[in-house]
């Protein structure tokens, strides 16, 4: 007869996510996970698989819970550019917040640490990035169709520029203790939409 789990796998996954997010993949050992989750190594392996599989599951969880409203924010009826500006300013404010200085963005951290040599992590990063870039592009296309964005502007290129800016804001916000740095960059980028 199989034993029932004596821990909540969902809570353990959330706890692993928080540890990986704070420390990164390489700096988190299985011993760290055992201690942080308060469950045995064998239980971790039986429930989540390897450390790498647990990391990917934590990354999936993060992607499911972060910015779930981005599409809704950018697809509201009416003028589109105010929504785009609000999203960029929100990302800048989040990047400059004390919490971001501690952890940054888990997807951005993964992009820097694992994506260059880990195809499974790279796929997840790319999917997450598409969930940011595509709604930006759609909003900019709508803005152009509504006359908010000049005809000569390329919505696809602008969406990519804003997406790269958002990722850069997350990196700089984590590394810098000068909030003006990210706010100024965001405002200069938004000026390109005028």
Automatic annotation (TrEMBL):
Q: Does the keyword tRNA processing apply?
A: no
DNA-binding region, residue range(s): 29-48
Which is an annotated GO molecular function term of this record? DNA binding
Keyword Nucleus tagged: no
Name the Gene3D superfamilies on file. Answer: Homeodomain-like (1.10.10.60), Tetracycline Repressor, domain 2 (1.10.357.10)
What keyword terms does UniProt attach to this protein?
DNA-binding, Transcription, Transcription regulation
Q: Where is the HTH tetR-type domain?
A: 6-66
**Sorted alphabetically, which PANTHER family does this protein's record hold?**
HTH-TYPE TRANSCRIPTIONAL REGULATOR YJDC (PTHR47506:SF1), TRANSCRIPTIONAL REGULATORY PROTEIN (PTHR47506)
Q: What is this protein called?
A: TetR/AcrR family transcriptional regulator
């Amino acid at each position: 007869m199989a034993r029932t789990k004596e821990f909540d796998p969902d809570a353990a996954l959330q706890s692993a996510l928080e540890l990986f997010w704070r420390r990164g993949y390489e700096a988190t050992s299985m011993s760290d996970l055992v201690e942080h989750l308060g469950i045995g190594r064998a239980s971790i392996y039986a429930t989540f698989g390897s450390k790498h599989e647990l990391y990917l599951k934590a990354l999936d969880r993060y992607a499911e819970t972060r910015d779930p409203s981005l599409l809704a924010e950018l697809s509201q009826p009416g003028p589109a550019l105010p929504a785009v500006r609000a999203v960029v300013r929100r990302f800048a404010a989040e990047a400059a917040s004390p919490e971001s200085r501690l952890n940054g963005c888990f997807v951005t951290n993964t992009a820097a640490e694992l994506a260059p040599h880990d195809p499974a992590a790279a796929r997840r990063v790319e999917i997450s990035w598409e969930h940011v870039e595509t709604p930006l592009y759609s909003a900019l296309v709508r803005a152009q169709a509504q006359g908010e964005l000049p005809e000569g502007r390329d919505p696809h290129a602008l969406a990519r520029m804003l997406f790269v800016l958002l990722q850069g804001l997350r990196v700089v916000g984590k590394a810098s203790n000068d909030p003006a740095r990210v706010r100024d960059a965001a405002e200069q980028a938004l000026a390109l939409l005028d």
